[in-house]
Amino acid sequence: MRSVTRATEPDPVAAVRDYYQQSAEREADRLSRAADGAVAERELDARALGDHLPPAPARILDNSGGPGTWTLWLAHRGYQVTLTDLSPALLDVARDRVAQAPQQYAANVESVTEADAHDLSAFPDASKAWSGRARGCS
């Protein structure tokens, strides 16, 4: 009888975190490069957000918000925003961007916090999901 050795399956959360840890700078600049589809993606996302968000002021959870591109977009429009992401490297980029933003917009960013989208129990319930990124608003 042969013994079968099972390979340990990789942790998908760790794999995602590692990917973004290694590519944080590229991801941070992605929506500003036309060659990466920035114009189309950014415009489509902005329209979708505009169609589904409540009027400001409102509190927004920008879950999986990465480098803070949409967090600052929302803050600029008067929303109070909490940004979460799995990648500490992307959160560092987001914190730098918030620190460099004009004070009237940076003040609308309530926090930049590491969180796994599979467990949002630290955040209040009664929010609406937006798209596949699970942006919530209350």
Explain what you see:
α4 links the parallel β1 and β2 (80-85). The longest helix has 15 residues, at 38-52. α2 (24-30) crosses α5 (88-100). The chain has a 5-stranded mixed sheet with strand order 3-2-1-5-4, covered by helices on one side. The protein has helices at residues 12-22, 24-30, 38-52, 69-76, 88-100, 103-106, and strands at residues 59-63, 80-85, 109-114, 128-130, 135-137. Residues 128-138 have low confidence and may be disordered. The chain is of the alpha/beta class. The N and C termini lie far apart (60 Å). 42% of the residues lie in helices and 17% in strands. The chain is built from 6 helices and 5 strands, in the order αααβαβααβββ.
Short recap of the structure:
With 138 residues, the chain is α/β, with parallel strands linked by helices. Helix content is 42%, strand content 17%.
List the helices and strands and how they pair.
Blueprint: H1 12-22, H2 24-30, H3 38-52, E1 59-63, H4 69-76, E2 80-85, H5 88-100, H6 103-106, E3 109-114, E4 128-130, E5 135-137
Parallel strand pairs: 1-2, 2-3
Antiparallel strand pairs: 1-5, 4-5
Helix pairs in contact: 2-5
Strand content of the residues, in percent? 15-25%
Largest sheet: 5 strands, mixed
DSSP strand tally: 5
Mean pLDDT: 81
Strand arrangement within the widest β-sheet reads 3-2-1-5-4
Radius of gyration: 17 Å
Q: What sequence of helices (H) and strands (E) makes up the elements? A: HHHEHEHHEEE
**Global geometry:** globular
Spans where pLDDT lies below 50 across 5 or more residues: 128-138
- Count of helical regions: 6
How far is it from the N-terminal to the C-terminal residue, by CA? 60 Å
Q: Could you say which structural class the secondary elements and strand pairing correspond to? A: alpha/beta
Give helix % range. 40-55%
